[in-house]
TrEMBL record:
Keywords: Transferase
A biological-process GO annotation: iron-sulfur cluster assembly
Keyword Membrane carried by entry: no
Biological classification of the source: Bacteria, Bacillati, Actinomycetota, Thermoleophilia, Solirubrobacterales
Top-rank taxon, per record: Bacteria
Location of the region described as Disordered in the Swiss-Prot/TrEMBL record: 291-311
Stated name of the protein: Glycine cleavage T protein (Aminomethyl transferase)
Transferase keyword on record: yes
UniProt GO MF annotations: transferase activity
Length: 311
């Protein structure tokens, strides 16, 4: 794993799903379909959110950003079709327009708490995750979005090369784009869930530790909300997403057992090749010692306090 404390690090995430929602009813429409309460989201701010099925399963995880003319939604590519279809099918009767922007826009994540300042964007951006604003970098127009990892830069796809050059010019000696395994390591350490990897449509918000404000319970009805409320009242969660630690390398697909001779307890979804951390789905409460079936090593598991999307 490459570590350079002086150089900026970045990764191209242009394959992420991107949508815009505009029109006179855009706010009410999204408020009626997404799990987050958008009433307090001002222009230049945003929120993590989910789109649930009528049975309360997680159809998509995303972030929603409010701008002057409407709303932008970003999600993992694996969640894009479910997000778009769910919103598209629910648009009847609403004065809204939906547009896919995935191929039209590039998205580059620049990592680090000081990334905003080092790119000269501190004055343009508000504080807090999801704060965003129109800006420019070496003449490249873009939208900068504060993220858990640093800052996301969204520009037109035909400006991608110019954007990469502008970032590289500020990155410092010896800098290079982050490799995928390094990005996954950061994501897992931060407890950020990737849809299609750690999250599937068979899962419920409580299993993923999705809680307010991501999944609101004090707003008008939205698809799946009744299931969320029932699970909240019962307090029973049979599966939990956990962070793991083991003395051996963990890989996606590796099985976990509930003890040396115990039943299957889950499957590793994100394996971290460097220090043995992973995100897993567990069947059972995870209180029994877990065993990494391929190696026989004992695995420490700790449920995430609060799950959140990786984008």
């Amino acid at each position: 794993m490459r570590v350079n404390s002086d150089a900026l690090q970045w990764t191209d995430r242009s394959d992420a799903g991107k949508l815009s929602v505009t029109g006179p009813d855009a706010f009410d429409y999204l408020q009626a379909h997404l799990s987050a309460d958008l009433r307090g989201v001002a222009v230049g701010a945003g929120s993590a959110t989910a789109l649930l099925t009528p049975r309360g399963q997680v159809r998509a995880l995303a972030r929603v950003l409010r701008f002057e003319r409407g709303w932008l939604l970003h999600c993992e590519r694996a969640a894009l079709e479910g997000l778009f279809r769910g919103l598209w099918n629910g648009r009847i009767g609403w004065r809204v327009e939906l547009h896919k922007l995935t191929l039209q826009q590039a998205l580059v994540t620049v990592l680090g708490d000081d990334a905003v300042a080092r790119l000269g964007l501190a004055q343009a951006l508000g504080a807090g995750e999801h704060a965003h604003a129109a800006a420019a970098l070496d003449g490249v127009p873009l939208r900068a979005v504060r993220s858990w990892a640093g800052v996301d830069l969204v520009a037109r796809a035909d400006h991608a090369d110019a954007l990469a050059a502008a970032i590289a010019a500020r990155a410092g000696a010896g800098a290079a784009p982050l490799e995928r395994c390094d990005w996954d390591w950061r994501r897992v350490i931060a407890g950020r869930l990737a849809y299609g990897v750690d999250v599937a449509e068979t899962m419920l918000p409580a299993e993923l530790a999705l809680s307010p404000p991501l999944v609101a319970t004090e707003k008008g009805l939205y698809p799946g909300m009744q299931t969320v409320l029932r699970q909240q009242r019962s307090g029973t969660v049979h599966r939990r997403i956990c962070r793991l630690h083991a003395p051996v390398l963990l890989a996606p697909g590796d099985e976990l057992l509930g003890g040396a001779d115990g039943p299957s307890a889950g499957t590793i979804t994100s394996g971290v090749c460097f220090d043995g951390l992973a995100l897993v789905r567990l069947r059972g409460d995870g209180s029994a010692p877990l065993v990494h079936r391929p190696s026989g090593a004992t695995v420490q598991a700790r449920p995430l306090d609060s799950g959140a999307p990786s984008l």
